[in-house]
Amino acid sequence: MNIPENLLYTDDHEWVKVDGDYAFAGITDYAQKELGDIVFVEVETVDEDLDQGESFGTIEAVKTVSDLFMPVSGRVVEFNGDLGSDPEVINKDPYGDGWIIKIKMSDISELDQLLNHTTYAKNIDG
After folding, report:
1. For 97-119, what is each residue's pLDDT tens digit?
2. Which among 16, 21, 29, 74 is least surrounded, fewest beta carbons within 10 Å?
3. pTM of this prediction?
């Protein structure tokens, strides 16, 4: 299981990469393996302010549809447009080209509530 040390994680299996006041977010390697082949990603919240834990979109796999949740509060400033034509890139590269949204964070202190790679690994190992 790939769990990069330089990222933060949520209990909902999203990851966060912080870049100044911005955060990139996507789903973890664990989540993409659990979902299976990803066929569609929908994000209709670009330019909206959302609170931590609110749904910002959905991800559809062959066997299920799951909500995607904001790892931190802020404005969704960008959706990874490449996912429109190639959603399965999330299966291939969940922490790189498979990022889903870019967020302008409104409360960076919320990062303290997220999990480091060690704690996240313990959570998914049960």
Report:
1. 999 999 999 999 999 999 999 99
2. 21
3. 0.96
